[in-house]
Design goal:
Blueprint (H helix, E strand, L loop, with lengths): L2 H5 L1 E8 L5 H4 L3 E4 L2 E6 L8 E5 L5 E4 L1 E7 L5 E7 L8 E4 L2 E4 L4 E8 L9 E4 L1
Length: 126
């Protein structure tokens, strides 16, 4: 196996919806895709993430990143959330804050910003 292949690993991006607005809890905000699985390295641009507002009111969205890990039993656990522009964030997200009017949509981009060794499992919260 070549050196480049050793640096490549599966990157799983679970997109989870977290919102302060009641519209999101009522199913008014939809994030797709819900999961991205890809082989990546530092600098890889992930497929776009689309956030759609199906509610009747404007929603404000703020993005944070959590680091997915496994405990000693192999059960997935989530680490503390960080801002996508912090040095600890494995991804850079743009935009990090935005509003979507009723019926509107917004594309969000993500770029891998840390070396990938053995797997990287960030969780993006909207």
């Amino acid at each position: 196996m070549g050196r480049l292949q050793l640096w490549l690993s599966a990157l799983i991006l679970l997109v989870m919806l977290v919102s302060l607005g009641t519209a999101a809890w009522a199913g008014g905000v939809v994030v797709t895709p819900a999961k991205i699985v890809t082989t990546a390295q530092m600098g890889t641009h992930l497929p776009p993430i689309t956030v759609v507002n199906r509610a009747d009111t404007t929603v404000a969205i703020a993005v944070t990143i959590g680091q997915g890990k496994h405990n000693h039993l192999g059960v997935p656990v989530l680490g503390e959330a960080v801002h996508p522009t912090s040095a600890e964030s494995p991804l850079r997200i743009f935009p990090t804050e935005f509003e979507i009017p009723p019926g509107g949509r917004r594309e969000v981009t993500a770029v891998v910003t840390q070396p990938v060794r053995g797997g990287l499992y960030p969780v993006v919260y909207f």
